[in-house]
User: Which sequence fits this backbone?
């Protein structure tokens, strides 16, 4: 088995999805890159990781989620100990020429940022990865009911936060 | 069932991954050595301790082998002793048989002088 060929294929098929998911969780481009690189190094070092795995995307998202959560915890500990310098958040959505789209994208990014990471993860997987609650549950190692309830809470918050803007666009 | 609101959110496309990352990440991933076998990973944290333990076992094995050799040498001595003992027993039996023979042999008849009283034997000596 040629691990380099598999790595390239894995990257081409899944890197964009992992990037979007981790960027949504961390909102920091260089941290996202670190997570992505660490993930591919892990897979390259031990090809057995993917043996018997049918859903590569789900498996890689799960690894990426765990790494991102570790990073969020380390950041929290660091922020408790040191005065946090103002960090510019990386853009989440693609830039748009349409001012309405841009306004919605900016507001949505801000609203997502206000969600706790566990709700944000569920929202991302549901909306942008189009996973079912069962798949989300398997990816995040939670029950489907928990996934569904986190999603409902998150959507309610987003709806409340974006109501004015959304009503304008309707 | 997704609401219009959710569909609207979904239509926001997340920005693409920077293209230059692909080459860098794959190069970094390929540069990693393959994972070691499990036993090496297990031993790796304290190789000196494991080497010391292996050396101790080597010494124990060596002592054990030496002790076995000594034991077998002692066994040879024991078997030699048994042979010697049998030889000694044989010789003792021969000596015993010989001494029986000596004891049972008829003693020579006493001389007529020896049968006489000491006083008369002495007189005879001075006279004759």
Assistant:
């Amino acid at each position: 088995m040629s691990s380099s060929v598999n790595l390239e294929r894995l990257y081409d098929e899944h890197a964009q999805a992992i990037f979007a998911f981790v960027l949504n969780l961390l909102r920091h481009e260089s941290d996202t890159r670190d997570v992505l690189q660490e993930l591919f190094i892990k897979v390259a070092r031990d090809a057995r990781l993917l043996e018997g795995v049918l859903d590569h995307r789900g498996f890689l998202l799960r690894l990426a989620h765990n790494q991102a959560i570790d990073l969020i915890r380390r950041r929290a500990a660091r922020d408790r100990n040191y005065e946090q310098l103002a960090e510019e958040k990386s853009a989440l959505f693609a830039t748009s020429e349409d001012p309405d789209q841009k306004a919605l994208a900016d507001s949505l990014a801000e609203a997502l940022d206000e969600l706790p990471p566990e709700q944000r993860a569920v929202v991302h997987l549901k909306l942008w990865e189009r996973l079912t609650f069962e798949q989300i549950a398997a990816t995040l190692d939670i029950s489907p009911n928990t996934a569904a309830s986190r999603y409902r809470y998150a959507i309610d918050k987003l709806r409340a936060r974006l109501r004015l803007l959304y009503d304008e666009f309707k | 069932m997704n609401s219009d609101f959710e569909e609207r959110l979904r239509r926001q496309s997340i920005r693409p991954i920077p293209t230059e990352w692909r080459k860098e990440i794959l190069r970094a991933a390929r540069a990693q050595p393959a994972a070691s076998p499990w036993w090496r990973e297990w031993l790796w944290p304290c190789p000196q301790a494991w080497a010391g333990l292996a050396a101790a076992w080597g010494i124990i094995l060596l002592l054990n082998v030496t002790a076995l050799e000594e034991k077998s040498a002692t066994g040879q001595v024991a078997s030699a002793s048994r042979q010697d003992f049998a030889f000694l027993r044989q010789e003792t039996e021969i000596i015993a048989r010989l001494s029986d023979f000596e004891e049972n042999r008829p003693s020579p008849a006493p001389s007529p002088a020896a049968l006489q009283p000491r006083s008369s034997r002495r007189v005879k000596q001075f006279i004759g």
Q: What stands out?
A: The interface with chain B takes residues 3-4, 7-8, 11, 15-16, 19-20, 23-24, 33, 36-37, 40-41, 43-48, 91-95, 101, 104-105, 108, 127-128, 155, 158-159, 162, 166, 169-170 of chain A (CB under 8 Å). The mean pLDDT of chain A is 88.
